[in-house]
Amino acid sequence: MYRALENLSVRRLDKYRLEIRRQPPMLTCGVIYANARIEKDLKDGNVLRQVANVACLPGIIGPSLAMPDIHWGYGFPIGGVAAFSLDGGIISPGGVGYDINCGIRCITTRISMRELHPGVEDLLALLYSTIPSGVGSSTRGFRVGKRDLLDVLANGSRWALKQGLADREDLEAHEDGGCMEDADPEAVSERAIERGLPQLGTLGSGNHFLEIDVVEEIFDEDTARIFGLFEGQTVVLIHSGSRGLGHQVCDDYVHAMLSAGIRSGIELPDRQLACAPISGSQGKAYFGAMAAAANFAFANRQIMTHLVRQTFERYFSSSWERLGMRLLYDCCHNIAKKETITWEGRRIQACIHRKGATRALGPGDRRLPERFRKTGQPVLVPGDMGRSSYILAGAPGAKETFSSACHGAGRLLSRQQAKKLGRGRSILDELKGRGVHAMAASRGTLAEEAPDAYKDVAEVVSTITGAGICRAVARLKPLAMVKG
Amino acid sequence: MAYSLIEHTADTGFRVTAGSVQGLFADAGMALAGIAGASGGRETVRTEVTVEGIDQADLLVRWLQELLYLMEVRRLRISRLEIPELGDTRMTAVVKGEYGSGPPAREIKGVTYHGLEIRRAGGGCEAVIIVDV
User: Fold this and answer.
1) Which pTM was predicted?
2) In this structure, are strands A470-483 and A437-440 parallel, antiparallel, or unpaired?
3) Which partner from A220, A275, A322, B31 sits 20 to 30 angstroms from A125, CA to CA?
4) Residue A407 catalytic?
5) Contacts of residue B57 in chain A, CB cutoff 8 Å?
6) Which of A208, A239, A306, A407 is catalytic?
7) Architecture of the domain whose range is B2-132
8) For chain B, which residues lie within 8 Å of any Cβ of chain A, measuring from their own Cβ?
9) The dihedral of CA A255, A258, A259, A261: what is its sign?
10) Average per-residue pLDDT in chain A?
């Protein structure tokens, strides 16, 4: 059942790309986007083996890819991207992960840092008290019943629109308009629904956050204008996912596919890569359940957007529309999507798995709303708590990654290592020294998420832009954050 | 109970060693509860859990997932675990503890199969388990 891949051969293709040579039972090679600095952090063979393991899965098209924020995960590496043919390929819950449609969105404003700065701590405290965060955080202010939840699973942010928690322009700024059409709430277990019911509209814990940033530097004035960005501007980032509902969906289907796979004699390099033919009944059921969990996550982030807007309205005594609180874009991180790709001159219907990676549609892609057709998709790349985050735009070169890019800085240290480094230090004070105010439900989380636990996001961004996958548009500096 | 945390970049892993496979299952459960911050307390609740799987490694993951559910959704703090029955594809456990007022201190999203193996050596056994946090 378990076939380890040893002695992988890695060679540098160019300044931004490494190749893992194909060796049996790999069906294709691996390509990792990494400059020389990032390559140094790949010394641990686990992560290379994970890229190679994905290359063994049936129906893979093109290489098994990894973005520059790659690090050791389970099953797929974090930063892993792979395309599987709808005709003979597989779908793997482990290639999506437990936090289905964990994702990030950016809300722009007309508020300058100067207007915000004197009271940023007060605004942060208001946000902290309004947005439920932390372990097992549960919905505050409103409750949804099971019937509403099924509506959320079927309709995602369209449900939020019906409830007055979103406007039409918000939906345009989501991938898939905020609703994956193939969602099948009936494929979601009762236990998943039970876990999701009290958690709609909550941030959660771990690396989830809500952050106020200032636009520190614009790299591309024309694109920034279309994105609604200007230097000195205040923006808000929200990073969260599908909470316990998504975790349970992943769990349910990994188990089911593992059992079925063993009965049918499928050989896997890692059990966490349990998979099923995407055109088969189990693959279809998982896709429907995963899409329903993705819709939960869209609605979850939209509810928090509504709460952020309400909080800003109270703080600035003005409507969110007057404050210009427009959703720039909502990017999905852990997801599988049916997309048409072009590979070696052929147009192929494929299921693209992105695990800790984001979609990055290039200019001209008809899936983009009209206003982004010339620029390419806004791609949000959050850094760590103390350093910068970036806003990029999908570039024509993204075709080679099936329109995918990095989703963040990527962890460098394990959580224990980060905690050890944090002993005797006050991360809160250190952040304050950098001009960043933070409130967290848990001090332990703060230590685990300390800036030195992450790669330098600038290296990650220079790799993805250098490789021609994205273009840099703006750099953000964090001012204040709520950590889960 | 003997467990130690292992380094894992994205998530959290722990190694459990025990004199028997039953002991390994019980200790892995207590380790999980310890990592989640949901161990200890009185024994006011007793609940029986039955799990089926394709082999013992699968049983171990499914058993730990059941405990996660009890901790997160039922808010159970776990003080003692007993494994009266453990076969190759089916197990029964007795979970003792008390209901807490809130969720566990730490969120664990899932128990993974990544690299999981139950190794038997020197009259005892060992497993390394990676959990998504």
Assistant:
1) 0.95
2) parallel
3) A322
4) yes
5) 271
6) A407
7) 3-Layer(bab) Sandwich (3.55)
8) 5, 7-12, 53-54, 57-58, 61-62, 65, 69, 72-73, 102-107, 109-110, 112-117, 130, 132-133
9) positive
10) 93
